[in-house]
Amino acid sequence: MFKIIEARFLAENIKLFEIEAPRIAKKRKAGQFVIVRIHEHGERIPLTIADSDVEKGTITIIVQGVGKTTRELNLKKKGDIILDVVGPLGQPSHIENFGTAVSIGGGVGTAIAYPTAVALKQAGNYVITINGARNKDLVILEEEMKAVSDEAYITTDDGSYGYHGFVTDKLQELIDQGKKIDFVLAIGPIPMMKAVADVTRPYGIKTVVSLNPIMVDGTGMCGGCRVLIDGKAQFACVDGPEFDAHKVDFKNLADRNKMYHKYEQEALKHFEEKCKLTEKINTLEQAE
Ligand SMILES: Cc1cc2nc3c(=O)[nH]c(=O)nc-3n(C[C@H](O)[C@H](O)[C@H](O)COP(=O)(O)OP(=O)(O)OC[C@H]3O[C@@H](n4cnc5c(N)ncnc54)[C@H](O)[C@@H]3O)c2cc1C
Ligand code: FES
């Protein structure tokens, strides 16, 4: 049983949780994740450890409500309990002093890019962050990213805040300005990570992405998280989740992630119908 110590929305549909998990807080390194199960009938979902506080014995996760389980989790409040939090899982990010490192987060990917940006800064890199979102309201962790950056940029697709354009437009602009970039980390939606890889490939800039395949056990046993790296099968939960962006088969990843789309849609529909029914019963009870 894991108690929620703090819970607050950072943006619409994106919620930050601080959870009591002292042993995970002590062991975890940047780039690692936990597998969470809300209750005994719940599915297991992977979520990156965005931060931790060893003294308080807490870890921070940031959750975007995209389907049934993440939306159910986002209904949880301070004081509520989560049944299982397993971790830390996955390989820690490979951190060294590369020189100039660019950390790019797209949407909730920023929550995953943030701890690695912190570790890159601690290793002595000159850190540039590019934090992209569809619009101003969806920008998260702006202050936190700024605090670890030597240069920080916000980009929005609609131009409502910061630089008007995609994270890749800003990255290309920096390259065109002659900025010497030694390392790029990109985390976000699959098309965004692929686009970053396409920008850096011609310049031979070492680029790493954190992959988000469907995961089940998180221990290398089920094969659910199989990804193709340089034509060879790897398990993102134990071999990753970070891989060389120039070697990832992004099409295979996108196709595999679509495999359960029909069932995910059905689960979300049932969940929303249940929520509406509960709301109706509560309203009727209050009216009595
Ligand atoms: C290593 C790793 C770290 C992640 N970290 C974060 C994070 O910090 N914050 C965050 O909001 N999200 C994170 N995700 C994605 C998160 O796990 C999925 O959004 C979540 O599982 C969706 O579940 P759902 O039931 O709400 O949605 P569903 O309706 O089941 O699915 C919506 C979409 O989520 C993806 N998905 C579904 N189930 C899984 C699964 N078991 N594993 C991976 N992806 C799945 C699929 O692409 C699917 O199309 C991470 C994924 C991985 C692999
Ligand atoms: S999640 Fe089962 S092998 Fe990776």
If you had to describe this structure to a student in words, what would you say it looks like?
The protein has 2 domains: 2-89, Translation factors (Elongation Factor Tu (Ef-tu), domain 3, Beta Barrel), CATH 2.40.30.10; 100-254, Nucleotide-binding domain of ferredoxin-NADP reductase (FNR) module (Rossmann fold, 3-Layer(aba) Sandwich). β1 and β2 (14-20) form a beta hairpin. Helices cover 32% and strands 31% of the residues. α5 packs parallel to α6. The mean pLDDT is 90. With 288 residues, it is of the alpha/beta class. The protein has 9 helices and 17 strands. The chain is globular. The strands form 4 sheets. The chain has a 7-stranded mixed sheet with strand order 12-11-10-9-13-14-17, with helices on both faces. The structure holds flavin-adenine dinucleotide (FAD) and FE2/S2 (inorganic) cluster (FES). FE2/S2 (inorganic) cluster binds at residues 215-218, 220-225, 235, 237. Residues 215-218, 220-225, 235, 237 line the site of FE2/S2 (inorganic) cluster (FES).
